[in-house]
Fold each of these.
Amino acid sequence: MALRAFGLEWLVFRDNKNTVAFVGRYCCHMGADLSRGKIVDGCIECPLHAWKFDSDGVCTGIPALDGSREQLLQNKKLASLPVKEAYGLIFVFYGENPDFDISQPRNMSQLRYGTSSRFVLPADSHVPCLNTFDLQHYKHIHQREFLKTPEIISNNPFHLGIEMDVRVVPNNLFNRFMFWLVGGEATICIDCWGASLLLMTNHKTGFGAIIGLLPVQKNLSSVFVLPIKNGGQSANPVSKIIDTFTLGIAGYLIRGFLRPDLNVLSGMKPFEGKLVDGLDDTAKRYWDYYRSLPSHSVDFSEK
Ligand code: FES
Ligand SMILES: [Fe+2]
């Protein structure tokens, strides 16, 4: 599968051991499009001269080369990025080694997950993270009222979490349903990792969401939303059907909650503007966190 991320073109495939490869899309020989190639012996084979590359992007074979010159394989490598699979999703890290691990959502020792949805957001990928810590928008966009001042938690430099006790204002059909579902009030925890991953849990319902943010290029991102539920994956067929059904409903509600966010965040050019003391303190805290994250870049010129 070919895709664009970090302003570059990539190819994603699985090798014979089911390992996910995330490598540069164009062949390092003459630039043929590897997405038109095929998988042979767990390697991607270029459609033009049949050079083969493994899941690390290393060239493992040049058919036109006789065995005596195998040393020529050295330094023939595609760009590749570290990949990790978790919750049925594929995570890729834009850098040599991941700065942080993919952790479990708070208060969920094991989790069941549904099917992810993808949204296109015409804005930088960290915008939904900024939105998480922007307390003013919860009232204006979601009609939620805070029952007490939200608590901010940070476990390490890549993490910023918030715990919010909120009351749902039943002003429309969607919010009336949410009000009924949570009994009017809910405790929501959201953990932000690396300004690129949001883990959201609702203490009352035991449901939540994982929101993965992929920068496609400047001012364009993909937002992946995965509904989750506390508890291990069930082997019982009836429980599986119930899980599929409830996670489907949860996904529908989470998408309904996020849709107004994504509408108003489209086209946003975020900067630390005229923030107001007492109103925007958690947004300020987010900017401090965001500015302290290392920015990564990988030199692909040699590969
Ligand atoms: S362009 Fe890919 S093998 Fe020659
Ligand atoms: Fe929001």
Amino acid sequence: MAEQRLGIKRKTHRREDARASLADAEFSAIRKSVLRSHGWRCAVCGWKSEGEDGPTHLQVHHIDDDHHNNQESNLEPLCPLDHAYHHLGCDAPSHGGHVGWASQMRVAYLPGLSPADLNLLHMALGAALADPSTAPVAQAIYRLLEVSTLVVKDGWGSHKAKDFAAAMERMTPEQYAHRKVDDLRVLYDWPIVQQMGEVWKKDYPMLSARSWAQHKR
Ligand SMILES: [Zn+2]
């Protein structure tokens, strides 16, 4: 499993690579077998998104950051939330533009929650929004999580993921390898939680808060 720490893609980005289409062809040929061999589950949080006969919401990640290395051992499925940990840099100055969710991520100080647990919590909150009886609780929990981004803003001067990405881009390889980010997590902006809530509930029907109440009985 890839390390689950905040990071950026420091090797050749596919958008700056003349051989990208060759690597892409290789990748698309092997992509589905990687997903299938992992049982259509995120390698970090275990979220399942079956896509044998339709679209899956899983993405396939290059563990060593090199999109030319399309060996099966270098590839693993990740849910969009876990994948984004490795790509804070999509929005870094030298890459320009907005790709993915880079501008909708804040850094939070949450040592007590693993990245996988926090991401599953995002999914549960999104699913709970669909039900008027649980939506206010989901909003209240999210506001508590937001407090942990303010700690980062005070201590580091910013809680924006793109500022962290820019700082990591300026590091030497040695500094980057030893970056101290183990207690930091990504909090996704509320519109992402809302937008993905319906999707997550479809993949995992038991995420709906009503089904929790049923399980309790
Ligand atoms: Zn995941």
